[in-house]
Amino acid sequence: MPTYRVEVSATAERQLRKLPRPDQIRVVRVMQGLSVDPRPPGRRKLSGYDDVFRVRVGRYRVLYSLEDRRLVIIVLKVGDRKDVYR
Length: 86
What we know:
Layout: E1 5-8, H1 10-18, H2 21-33, E2 44-45, E3 52-57, E4 60-67, E5 72-80
Parallel strand pairs: 1-5
Antiparallel strand pairs: 2-3, 3-4, 4-5
């Protein structure tokens, strides 16, 4: 099975830096895991989008776009569950 390349948007990178250090580590591990399994158990497709998914990391959410043809995952947003969908 081919591995995907994970790219992080500038917005997601800024949001990730604002998280507490232990949570940053957990979120980064999940993001790295997406390169091996881009459709992990528990992921959800966001309604209204064709290729945008979310994965839970405790109280945080990682929103990402999946491009199967190019084997690329683009992390769009990282944040608290109450704020990330806005």
